[in-house]
C-alpha cells in the first residue's frame, strides 16, 4: 500500500493507472514520430492532447469503478463497465483530437490511433481484473499472533486484498489459546527478525491477543523495521486495508497521538472553495433534471416538492436539509422518527427511482452553497438518532467535527443500512474520512459516487 495525501492506495492500482495513461500518450506520440521529421513539429500539440485524453480516461475509468479491487466481480460485469467507459471514451478521443490544427500532418490517423488506444485501455482493464497476472506483485505478510485478533486480520486480508499473501501466523509468547488452524501456524526460526527475513516477509501485522508480561518483542520488531520490513499494529492494518478505523481495535491514545484529524484554516478554506465551485457547476448542469423531477413529484402525489428536515451539522449545530420529497406526506404521521429501509413502503414510485439514482439529493446543493453542508462528508443525521447513537457507539460524535456531505466515504463503501450495527460500520468509514480527508480524497469519493449512481449500488 502507498499513502498519497493521507489516503492509502494499492501500488498495483497506481501501476495500472500509469500504464493506462502511458499507453495513450505513447500511442499518439509514436504514430507522429513514425511519419518522419516532417511531422515532428506536431509532437507538442499531439502530446498535450494525449495528456488531456489520458486524464479524461482516468476520470472515466475511476467513475466506472474499473480501478476498484472487487473479488466477486464477474467478467460480464467488468465488460459492461468497460463498454460504458467506451461509450464516453471513444467520442471524447475523437472530439479532443479534432481540435488539432487543420493543417496537422496525418490528423485523421492520429485520431484513429487515439481511439484505438482508448479501446486497448478498456481491454487491459478487463484483462487485469481477471487474469491473475498481478499475483507476482503480492505483498508477503506475516501475522504476529494466533488469537481472535489475528484470525480477524487474516480474514480481512483474504476477503479484501487480492495483492496480499499471508505467509503464516506466529503465536505470541504468552498466547495460550489459538484460533488459527495448525497448518497455518509457523515455528520460530531463531528470533522474530531472523524468521521474517528467512521467509522474505514484506510486512508484519502485530495482532496479539495478549500484550502484557513481555508479549511484545519491541527490540525485535524494531530490528525488522530497520531491515526494511513494515511493522503495523492491528488498528493501522484495518485503516489501510479496509479504509476504516475499527472501533473494536482502537483506543483514545491511538486517535490522539497518531497523525490525522487535521482540520486547520487552510484546509477548511480550500475545501469551501472546492464546495462552492462544484456545487454551483453541478446545480446548473442538473437544473433540467431537477425541473422534470419536480413536475413528476407533483403529478404523482399531493404535497410539497421539497422535503425539509432538521439535521445535525458541524459541531452539533442544527440546520434544515433540503431534498426532493420521495415519501408520502404521512410517512411519520405518529410523530415518531423511523429509520429509512431498503424497501420502505412509505416511498412513492417516483421517490423509489430518484432515491436509487440519487436525484433526491440534488437540492442539498443549496445547503452546500449556504455553507451548512459540504460536497463530501459524513451523512447528516437527525437529532433523535444522533442522541441514540452517541449513547451506544464510542466516538460517534467525532464525525460532527466536519461538515456533513451530499456524498461521503461511508455512502460509497457501505451498502444500505438501517440499524445500530449498520451505523457502527458506517461510522468506521466516517472516522477514516475525518482522520484522513483531503481534497484528493474528496475527488476520489466524488468519482466513486458516479460509479455508485451508474450501477445503482451503495448506501443511502
Describe the model.
Keywords: Membrane, Transferase, Transmembrane, Transmembrane helix. Pfam families: Bac_transf (PF02397). The chain has 16 helices and 10 strands. The chain is of the alpha/beta class and about 450 residues long. It has 3 domains: about 1-135, no CATH class; about 140-240, Rossmann fold (3-Layer(aba) Sandwich); about 265-330 and about 340-455, no CATH class.
**Average residue pLDDT:** 86
Largest sheet: 4 strands, parallel
Whole-angstrom Rg: 25 Å
Judged by helices, strands and strand pairing, the structural class is alpha/beta
The largest sheet has its strands arranged as 4-3-5-6
Taken from the alpha-carbon principal axes, the silhouette is: globular
Uncertain residue segments: none
N-end to C-end Cα span:
29 Å
The SSE order reads: EEHHHHEHEHEHEHHHEEHHEHEHHH
Number of domains: 3
Number of strands: 10
Q: Please, how many helices?
A: 16
Oligomer: single chain
Relative helix content: 40-55%
Strand content: 5-15%
Keywords:
single chain, alpha/beta, Rossmann fold, 3 domains, 4-stranded parallel beta sheet, two-stranded antiparallel ribbon, 10 strands
List the helices and strands and how they pair.
Layout: E1 2-4, E2 7-9, H1 11-33, H2 43-63, H3 75-97, H4 107-130, E3 139-144, H5 148-160, E4 164-170, H6 192-198, E5 203-206, H7 218-226, E6 230-233, H8 234-242, H9 252-257, H10 265-300, E7 306-312, E8 318-324, H11 349-356, H12 364-370, E9 374-376, H13 383-392, E10 405-407, H14 409-413, H15 420-436, H16 439-455
Parallel strand pairs: 3-4, 3-5, 5-6, 9-10
Antiparallel strand pairs: 1-2, 7-8
Helix pairs in contact: 1-2, 1-4, 2-3, 2-4, 2-16, 3-4, 5-8, 6-7, 10-11, 10-12
